[in-house]
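Lab notebook, bench 4. Still working through the backlog of constructs that have no structural model yet. Next entry is a single chain of 120 residues. Request: give me the structure tokens for it.
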Amino acid sequence: MLLKTTRTILLMLFLSIFLGACANHATQTRELLAVDYATLSDDQLTLHYYALEDQIERVERSSVSPRINLGFGLSRYGLSSGTSGGVGVSSGVGKKTTADDLRERRNQVKLELLKRGISP
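Model written out:
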């Protein structure tokens, strides 16, 4: 019983850390896409361009590997009880990704840089 409780606690801890990292990527992406790049100074625009580059790399690195989903269930009915589990693997082939949105914004920022006579 203690071993099952320990496993459950460790699994919950791992999932919360993993989901927190995913939320951080999404938050950083939203912040980058929300910037009004036309109002930035030349130096800020250049830094914003490189921040978009870095975020594209992070998002692609995290989405290259297939996603593994785990599910666990506990049931109790009368005197009987049972456990079940499942594993699923998926990949995002053919879907528009967040990296596509970031690439589109990076291209817009690059055009703005070129319009200002700055080569990134």
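Notes after review: Residues 41 and 47 are 10 Å apart (CA to CA). The chain has three helices and two strands. Flag for follow-up if needed.
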